[in-house]
Write a structure and sequence with these properties.
four-stranded mixed β-sheet, alpha+beta, three-stranded antiparallel β-sheet, single chain, elongated, 12 strands, 14 helices
Amino acid sequence: MFTILDDFLHRPFGRREALDKGIPARVLEGVRFRRLHKGVYAQRDHEMSWEDHVEAARLALPDSARTTGATRLRQLGFAVGSEWPLHFVVEGDLHLELDDVFLHRTVKMPPSDDEGVTAEAAFVAFCAEARLLDAIKVGCVLLNKERLDLDLLDRILTEEKWRRGVVETAYVLSLLDGRCRSMAEAELLTFFVFAGLPMPEVNVAIEVAPGVELTPDFRFTHYEQVVEYEGGQHQDDRGQYVADIDRYALYRRHEVPYELVTKERMRSPKATVRLVHRALVARGYDGPPPEFGEQWDSLFRRVADVVRPKRAA
């Protein structure tokens, strides 16, 4: 039996590379390998990661192709949109079909590096496809993590107005809030804003007693009402779980009113907003109740559909 170099057993690779390293074509086409795309293979028992699928698609595409949109944002550490299909962009009128790959064609490549387009260009491409809520969440965290250069983004929006996603991105940009450290926080804050609740402080430290400082996710200052988001990591990470118990105990001990919003509660956005509204009313809020009209509904539509009337105007 032909001996395969270990390097070819744990990753996707191109046919040309394999032949150059002495692997016969008959072995590539045999039972020990499977074809992922034309000219791209992997050892049959190798369990493909998402990153492996990205690399396999890259090997099947021209060298000039770059990841974009949700795929590029995921590469940069932001789990947004769907993993599939993978999004790549290439300059020119290339027509090539690959399984689970969407190939965007453009007359001019967006700013990019050797891996993919820049975070700014990826965000523009993402906004072209995304729901308004998802675009806001991603944009807020990109700002918070200082991964979105507003000068570079403005250059795309002003100098490349023809590019797909520019109109949508310009609309989303005014709705971003860089105070949110996670997409869950950004989502919850967006619910408050679009339902018409008062604007809370976000991630601002408060002193609940002399020398005792806490940093709630949200605090409606005028009503001294705290709101904390508790996601899955708060339950899965034992250290975080214990820290949360201690923090909530401090709130109670020092009579700081707080509400917990769990990831399960977030599955019902209106109910979540009503929960916080009731807590504010109990603290003296006498403003208008949450409004779930056209503005609210726009959160769950594609940005492209929301801004279409603006295009027509």
